[in-house]
Design a protein that fits this description.
Distance between the termini of chain A: 42 Å
Shape of chain B: globular
Largest sheet of chain B: 8 strands, mixed
Bound molecules: adenosine-5'-triphosphate, adenosine-5'-diphosphate, iron/sulfur cluster, magnesium ion
Keywords (chain A): ATP-binding, Cell membrane, Membrane, Nucleotide-binding, Transport
GO cellular component, one term (chain A): plasma membrane
Strand order of the largest sheet of chain B: 6-7-8-3-9-10-12-11
Oligomer: heterodimer
InterPro entries (chain A): AAA+_ATPase (IPR003593), ABC_Ni/Peptide_Import (IPR050388), ABC_transporter-like_ATP-bd (IPR003439), ABC_transporter-like_CS (IPR017871), Oligopep_ABC_C (IPR013563), P-loop_NTPase (IPR027417)
Number of strands of chain B: 12
CATH class of the largest domain in chain B: Alpha Beta
CATH superfamily of the largest domain in chain B: P-loop containing nucleotide triphosphate hydrolases
Number of domains of chain B: 2
Low-confidence stretches of chain B: 335-352
Radius of gyration of chain B: 21 Å
Strand content of chain A: 15-25%
Shape of chain A: globular
Mean pLDDT of chain B: 89
Subcellular location (chain A): Cell inner membrane
Protein name (chain A): Peptide/nickel transport system ATP-binding protein/oligopeptide transport system ATP-binding protein
Structural class of chain A: alpha/beta
Number of helices of chain B: 11
Helix content of chain A: 25-40%
Mean pLDDT of chain A: 89
Chain lengths: 344, 352
C-alpha cells in the first residue's frame, strides 16, 4: 500500500452468486478494492452492475440461500469478515462498519421513535445507559443538522421529511464511531436541493470524524463532487479504477468513456444530439468468459469474445494503487489496433 | 425549436388544483392541499416546455390537470382552441386522441397481461374504426417509429427492458396522432446509458411529427438539453419561466438560482469553482403555504415585504416571467442584469 499506510478495509477476489429457480445470477465476479483511512471511494455503475451486492456481501447482509459468497477475502484490520461467525459479524456491523441505504423510509422502522432507533446500537454495542445513550443521540442528531434535536427524539419516521430521514440514517450509521461508512445511493431518492444539503454534511463530517467512506451512486456529478477515488463497475466486475480527477480527465474503459459522453451538461455548449450507448446491460447468467461490455462496445474485437480482460495498470502503478482498467483495447491503439472493429 | 411566429397550442390561465382534506369523525372538509395554486403559462406549437421543481411541488398535477385526468378546481386550459377544463364528457372523449401522456414508470403503466400489440393497439380500438388488418399495419408502423422490433409484437411487457418498455409506452401514446404529449419523468426510472436513447427518440419524433411536449423532469441537465423554455415550479406556483439558455446562463428567481446551483456537475475540476447555494430546511406543506411569497421561508434573499405580499409573475425581461419582489420588470432590463436579453427591445407577448 502507498507510503506504508495500511488500508482500513481490503477486499480481494470477491465472488457472489445467487442460486434462483430461474438459474444462477453471477452478480459479483472477482471484485477487489481497498479503502484507506479517511478516504472516500466512489462506486459507480448502472443498476444491476453489482454495486449493492458487493457491499452487502462484505458485511454478511445477504440471505443465503439464494446468495452464495463463493470466494474472496474481506479484511477489516487484519480480520477476515468472510470467516467471521454471525455473532462477530453483527458486532462489526453495529460498531465498526456503518451503512446507509437508498430509501430511508424502508430502512427506518415506522413503529419506533427516531430516538429509540438511534439509541438501540449505542446501548447494545457501546454499553451505554439509557441516560447516556440519550445524551449521545441528541449529539448525533445535532451533528447531522436536525434542529430541536431533544424534542425530535420522540418523533416517528413519518413525521420527518425524506431529507431528515436520510440524516437520521446517517446519524444511526455514525452512532458507534465506525471506521468505515458504506453509503448505498443515499441521495438517489432525494431532491437536488436536499442532496446538496446531505453532500455538504458528509464533507463536514469527514473533516470532523476522519472516517473512510464507500459511496455508491450512479450519478457521476455526485462522484465528481465528493470522491477521492472512483471504481467503475459493469456486469459484476470492476472495469476501471482511478483517482477522481484522473478518471474524468483520462477515462480509459470504453464504458466509462461512453458514459461521460452520454450525460448532458449543465454548462458549456448545448449539444445537438445526445451520444448513446446502444443496447442493454448484460444478463449475468454464467461466470463471464468474455468481456461483459462487448455487445455494446464500439471497440470490441476478437479477443474480447475469447477472453475476459483482467485489470491492468494504466499509469505504471500497481493495480488498485493508481489508475487501472480491465480492457483489451487502449485509446492509443497500442493493444491491438489491427483488430479493432467498428461497431454500430 | 420555436420561432416568434408560432402561436400557443396550449394556453393555461389561472389553473388551480386543490385536493380536499377531510378529517375528524364526520369527515368534515377542513382544508385543501393546494397542489397547483393559480398558475398561467403557454406552450407554443412544436416546442418543448420543461417543467422542473422539487418533489411534491405540483408538476405531475399540472400535467394531469392539463389532460383533464383531474377535474381542475378553477381555471382555463385551452388546447388547440378548446377549453379542456370545461368540455362535456362526449366532447372530451373526441378530444382525447389529440393529447396523450407518457409516464415515469414504464413497468407500472403497462398491463402485464396484454401483449405489446394489444397495448399499442388499445387506443385504436377505442377511438378508430380500423379493420384488424389496418390496425396491425398501424401497430407495426408505430413499433418501427419507436425502434421496437416487429417480431416482438406478441410478447408481454415483462420480457422487455426498462428502456424498451418506455418505447412501448411512447408508441401507445402516438397511436392516435396526438399533437400534444405530457411526458411525466419519462426517463427517471431508466439507467443513464438508456436515458439518452429515449430522449433522442422523443426528439426525433417531435421533429418528424411536429409534436408539442410538456417535459416534466427533475433532471435539470437533461431539461437543458431537451427544452426550448423552462418553467420552474415551487410549492404549487411558477417562480420563473424563461427560454432555456437564458435561464441556465442566469436564473432570475432566487429559487431557480438555488435549484440550478445544487446540481452536482460531472467535472471534478470545476467543483469548488462553483458557487453553491445550500437551501435550509424543507419545502412547506402545500396544505398550509406561507403568507406572502411562498418561497420566503427558505429564500436567502428574503425581505420583510416578502412575508406580507405575494409577488406576481411578471415580465422581467423579454420572454422571461419571474415572480419575485427583487425583480422589477424595468430595473432588471435597465441594469443589464439579464445580459443580452435586456438589450433586445422586442417583447414576445406571452399571456398572463
Ligand atoms: N390525488 C391526490 N390527493 C391529495 N393530494 C395529492 C394528490 N395528488 C397529489 N397530491 C399532492 O399535491 C402536491 C403535488 O403533487 P405532485 O404529484 O403534482 O408533485 P410532483 O411535483 O409531480 O412531485 P414528484 O417530483 O415527486 O413527482 C403534493 O403535496 C401531493 O402530495
Ligand atoms: N436476491 C437476489 N436474487 C437474485 N438475484 C439478485 C438478488 N439481488 C441482486 N441480484 C442480482 O445481482 C445483480 C447485481 O445487483 P445489485 O448489486 O443490486 O446491482 P446494483 O446495486 O449495482 O444496481 C443483478 O443482476 C441483480 O438482479
Ligand atoms: S475488452 Fe473489448 S469489448 Fe471489452 S471494453 Fe475493451 S474493447 Fe470493449
Ligand atoms: S419575493 Fe422575496 S422571498 Fe420570494 S423569492 Fe423574491 S426575494 Fe425571495
Ligand atoms: Mg443498488
Ligand atoms: Mg410527479
Amino acid at each position: 500500500m502507498p507510503d506504508g499506510a495500511m488500508p482500513v478495509l481490503e477486499v480481494r477476489g470477491l465472488k457472489t452468486v445467487f442460486h434462483t429457480r430461474g438459474g444462477s445470477v453471477h452478480a459479483v465476479n472477482d471484485v477487489s478494492f481497498h479503502l484507506m483511512p479517511g478516504e472516500l471511494l466512489g462506486v459507480v455503475g448502472e443498476s444491476g452492475s453489482g454495486k449493492s451486492v458487493t457491499m452487502m456481501s462484505l458485511i454478511g447482509l445477504l440471505p443465503s440461500p439464494p446468495a452464495d459468497v463463493q470466494s474472496g477475502q474481506v479484511l477489516l484490520g487484519g480480520q477476515d469478515l468472510l470467516k467471521a461467525t454471525p455473532e462477530a459479524l453483527r458486532k462489526v456491523r453495529g460498531a465498526r462498519i456503518g451503512f446507509v441505504f437508498q430509501d430511508p423510509m424502508t430502512s427506518l422502522n415506522p413503529v419506533f421513535t427516531v430516538g429509540s432507533q438511534i439509541m438501540a446500537p449505542l446501548r447494545k454495542h457501546m454499553g451505554l445507559s439509557k441516560a447516556q445513550a440519550e445524551v449521545r443521540a441528541v449529539e448525533l442528531l445535532e451533528l447531522v443538522g436536525i434542529p430541536d434535536a431533544r424534542r425530535r427524539l420522540k418523533s416517528y419516521p413519518h413525521q420527518f421529511s425524506g431529507g431528515m430521514r436520510q440524516r437520521v440514517m446517517i446519524a444511526i450509521a455514525l452512532a458507534c464511531d465506525p471506521e468505515v461508512l458504506i453509503a448505498d445511493e443515499p441521495t438517489t431518492a432525494l431532491d437536488v436541493t436536499i442532496q446538496a444539503q446531505i453532500l455538504e454534511l458528509v464533507k463536514e463530517l469527514r473533516q470532523k470524524l476522519g472516517m473512510a467512506i464507500v459511496w455508491i451512486t450512479h450519478d457521476l456529478g455526485v462522484v465528481a463532487e465528493i470522491a477521492d477515488r472512483v471504481m467503475v463497475m459493469y456486469g459484476g466486475q470492476v472495469v476501471e479504477q482511478a483517482p477522481v480527477k484522473e478518471l474524468f480527465r483520462n477515462p480509459r474503459h470504453p464504458y466509462t468513456r461512453a458514459l461521460l459522453k452520454t450525460i448532458p451538461k449543465l454548462g458549456g455548449q448545448r449539444g445537438e444530439r445526445l451520444q448513446v450507448i446502444e443496447g442493454q446491460p448484460p444478463i449475468l447468467g454464467s461466470a463471464p468468459a468474455a468481456c461483459p461490455f462487448r455487445a455494446r462496445c464500439a471497440h470490441a474485437f476478437a479477443r474480447c469474445e475469447a477472453e475476459n480482460p483482467v485489470r491492468r495498470p494504466v499509469d505504471g502503478r500497481p493495480v488498485g494503487q493508481g489508475h487501472d482498467v480491465a480492457c483489451h483495447w487502449s485509446p492509443e491503439g497500442a493493444e491491438d489496433p489491427s483488430q479493432e472493429a467498428a461497431h454500430a | 425549436m420555436r420561432d416568434t411566429t408560432t402561436r400557443p397550442l396550449v394556453e393555461v390561465r389561472n389553473l388551480k388544483m386543490y385536493f380536499p382534506i377531510h378529517s375528524g369523525l364526520m369527515r368534515k372538509h377542513t382544508g385543501d392541499v393546494k397542489a397547483v395554486d393559480d398558475i398561467s403559462f403557454d406552450i407554443y406549437e412544436g416546442e418543448t416546455l420543461g417543467l422542473v421543481g422539487e418533489s411534491g411541488c405540483g408538476k405531475s398535477t399540472v400535467g394531469r390537470a392539463l389532460l383533464r385526468l383531474y377535474e381542475p378546481t378553477a381555471g382555463q386550459i385551452t388546447i388547440a382552441g378548446d377549453d379542456v377544463a370545461s368540455l362535456s364528457p362526449e366532447a372530451l372523449r373526441r378530444k382525447r386522441p389529440t393529447m396523450q401522456m407518457v409516464f415515469q414508470d414504464p413497468q407500472a403503466s403497462l398491463n402485464p397481461r396484454m401483449t405489446v400489440a394489444d397495448i399499442i393497439g388499445e387506443p385504436l380500438d377505442e377511438h378508430s374504426g380500423l379493420s384488424s388488418a389496418d390496425k396491425l399495419a398501424r401497430i407495426y408502423e408505430l413499433m418501427d417509429a419507436v425502434g421496437l422490433n416487429r417480431a416482438f409484437a406478441n410478447r408481454y411487457p415483462h420480457a422487455f427492458s426498462g428502456g424498451q418498455r418506455q418505447r412501448i409506452g411512447i408508441a401507445r401514446a402516438l397511436a392516435l396522432n396526438p399533437k400534444f404529449i405530457v411526458c411525466d419523468e419519462p426517463i427517471a426510472a431508466l439507467d443513464v446509458s438508456i436515458q439518452a436513447q429515449v430522449v433522442n427518440l422523443l426528439e426525433d419524433l417531435q421533429d418528424r411529427l411536429g409534436l408539442t411536449y410538456l417535459f416534466i423532469s427533475h433532471d435539470l441537465s437533461m431539461v437543458r438539453h431537451i427544452a426550448d423554455r423552462v418553467a420552474v415550479m415551487y410549492l404549487g406556483q411558477i417562480a420563473e419561466i424563461s427560454p432555456v439558455d437564458a435561464l441556465y446562463a442566469r436564473p432570475l428567481h432566487p429559487y431557480a438560482e438555488a435549484l440550478l446551483s445544487a446540481v452536482p456537475e460531472p467535472d471534478p475540476s470545476r467543483e469548488g469553482a462553483r458557487q453553491r447555494i445550500i437551501l435550509k430546511g424543507d419545502v412547506p406543506s402545500p396544505a398550509n403555504p406561507p403568507k406572502g411569497c411562498n418561497f420566503c421561508t427558505r429564500c436567502p434573499k428574503v425581505m420583510p415585504v416578502c412575508r406580507e405580499v405575494e409577488p406576481r409573475l411578471q415580465e422581467a425581461a423579454p420572454d422571461r416571467l419571474v415572480a419575485c419582489h427583487l425583480i422589477h420588470p424595468i430595473d432588471a432590463a435597465r441594469a443589464g442584469q439579464t445580459g443580452q436579453a435586456g438589450a433586445q427591445e422586442h417583447s414576445q407577448q406571452q399571456g398572463v
